[in-house]
Amino acid sequence: MPPQKLSGKPEELAAFIDKFDIFLFDCDGVLWQGASLLPRTAETIAHLRSLGKQLLFVTNNSTKSRTTYQAKLQGLGIPCGINEIFCSAYSSAIYISRVLRLQRDKRVYVIGESGIKEELATEGVAYISDDGGDITPEDYDSFGPDEDVGVVLCGLDHAISYRKLARAYQYLRNPGTVFLATNIDSTFPTHGKLFPGAGAMSAPLTYMTGRTPVSLGKPSQAMMDAIEGVLEFDRKRACMVGDRLDTDIRFGIEGGLGGTLAVLTGVSTEEEILEEGATVVPDAYLDRLCDILG
Amino acid sequence: MPPQKLSGKPEELAAFIDKFDIFLFDCDGVLWQGASLLPRTAETIAHLRSLGKQLLFVTNNSTKSRTTYQAKLQGLGIPCGINEIFCSAYSSAIYISRVLRLQRDKRVYVIGESGIKEELATEGVAYISDDGGDITPEDYDSFGPDEDVGVVLCGLDHAISYRKLARAYQYLRNPGTVFLATNIDSTFPTHGKLFPGAGAMSAPLTYMTGRTPVSLGKPSQAMMDAIEGVLEFDRKRACMVGDRLDTDIRFGIEGGLGGTLAVLTGVSTEEEILEEGATVVPDAYLDRLCDILG
């Protein structure tokens, strides 16, 4: 069945909204584009809140912690609680502490930025990382396996370096070391272009070891597991709202959510949504999120 | 037929040597291990020269130019001419100028070290590279496709960075830009361990673009083509000598050389060489290169 473009009729919109108790929102391309809030976003969010809906902001971006995201949302006029934010740095920390149940005496080796480190610290997970300097002759001698490192976690890192990769590789040669990625997006959209994404940070390690990381970002269901690790909700009464078919909408469908809603303010186009033979099809779509206001 | 371990009998050794006019040598693991020359290597090389054999030193290491390699060989007591050295930095330069015949007004974007840049300059190929600093807000705006960049060439780079990869990605989005790698070795053996190899530098770009680079290192036959671009020889009268089945010996077999000789002073073991059902099998092998002296 082709996805339904929701009309502006109040009764149709109300019927769609009434099917759900919780809405999971992707952020970039749904609420904002880069630094600019999309029209009437704050009003839309406030409207859903006034109807008693639970909200969750779910993003693959691992460079920011929930605290930083909360400040960003509030700065854009969207008040929200920290428990309403689910970024891949947080899902990684939750997964390590509550799903993997990493032993207290083991550490996580992090390739990534402050968002990951903050969330690991908040969750009480010990971690180490590399200062990112050049590899030295001493490093060649001293680098090696480390039984204390139980997990290598790889996220977007604008200071990725040879030394960081060389250390990760030594740890991953131990088959007992778990290989995780905050997400495996190949690219990261910003400034209207594409730049290397978190998946480009783990790609060299996959090439060297033949190992594929478990991803804690959409569409991986490990992220859904992490969400359920901290929040009880009825999947059949949940709707995933996103701009990307291959991550957001797929995440909702494979997670068995009650519904998926696509918006056309980001990556995926109306042609892609309506394409015959498409494997990932949302239940409904809108030009812009605020069209849900009627 | 299982490979023959050459006995020390003078007539058998002479019969093997007599089949060839030219010997192609891998270097690391054959002539030396790290910084240490293997026993009687200089004597062995001198012996083959005294028999009138042509010699070629063929290495995937792209960080050094032929001039630097020549100095290394001479420093280890192996006199050699610059034309006897074929490193992947040189094969890349030759391939670009003589096989691709890159237009004079086009440039090569290099991820790699001084060896590549020196060889491109010697071959008269214009190139640009990145200074490797952090990516800046201005970069996000200014980075983009560049019609002047005809080739992206990727080799081992101990100063690999996000900015270098981000620029390469923008160039490679143009399907007309040729994607080359000096070699695609996943790891680089040094200090008795494995560290990220040149293939780990191009892996993020492959992951982002879905494009696989043409490799100019063993076992790629593009390297054999590059050798033939500067040196005429009868492949049937040539023998490849190496320590790795998957690169050196495969390179010789797929290149249709008259013979291949493995040595056990490097990566591949006698068990691997004699393994039943192995797909890459040398014609003969020796414990050490100097055993060819008898």
Automatic annotation (TrEMBL), chains A, B:
<feature type="active site" description="Nucleophile">
    <location>
        <position position="26"/>
    </location>
</feature>
<feature type="binding site">
    <location>
        <position position="218"/>
    </location>
    <ligand>
        <name>substrate</name>
    </ligand>
</feature>
<dbReference type="InterPro" id="IPR023214">
    <property type="entry name" value="HAD_sf"/>
</dbReference>
<dbReference type="InterPro" id="IPR036412">
    <property type="entry name" value="HAD-like_sf"/>
</dbReference>
<dbReference type="InterPro" id="IPR006357">
    <property type="entry name" value="HAD-SF_hydro_IIA"/>
</dbReference>
<dbReference type="GO" id="GO:0004721">
    <property type="term" value="F:phosphoprotein phosphatase activity"/>
</dbReference>
<feature type="binding site">
    <location>
        <position position="26"/>
    </location>
    <ligand>
        <name>Mg(2+)</name>
    </ligand>
</feature>
<keyword id="KW-0460">Magnesium</keyword>
<feature type="active site" description="Proton donor">
    <location>
        <position position="28"/>
    </location>
</feature>
<dbReference type="Pfam" id="PF13242">
    <property type="entry name" value="Hydrolase_like"/>
</dbReference>
<feature type="binding site">
    <location>
        <position position="28"/>
    </location>
    <ligand>
        <name>Mg(2+)</name>
    </ligand>
</feature>
<dbReference type="GO" id="GO:0046872">
    <property type="term" value="F:metal ion binding"/>
</dbReference>
<dbReference type="GO" id="GO:0004035">
    <property type="term" value="F:alkaline phosphatase activity"/>
</dbReference>
<dbReference type="Pfam" id="PF13344">
    <property type="entry name" value="Hydrolase_6"/>
</dbReference>
<dbReference type="GO" id="GO:0005737">
    <property type="term" value="C:cytoplasm"/>
</dbReference>
<keyword id="KW-0378">Hydrolase</keyword>
<protein>
    <recommendedName>
        <fullName>4-nitrophenylphosphatase</fullName>
        <ecNumber>3.1.3.41</ecNumber>
    </recommendedName>
</protein>
<dbReference type="GO" id="GO:0008967">
    <property type="term" value="F:phosphoglycolate phosphatase activity"/>
</dbReference>
<feature type="binding site">
    <location>
        <position position="243"/>
    </location>
    <ligand>
        <name>Mg(2+)</name>
    </ligand>
</feature>
<keyword id="KW-0479">Metal-binding</keyword>
<dbReference type="GO" id="GO:0005975">
    <property type="term" value="P:carbohydrate metabolic process"/>
</dbReference>
<dbReference type="InterPro" id="IPR006349">
    <property type="entry name" value="PGP_euk"/>
</dbReference>
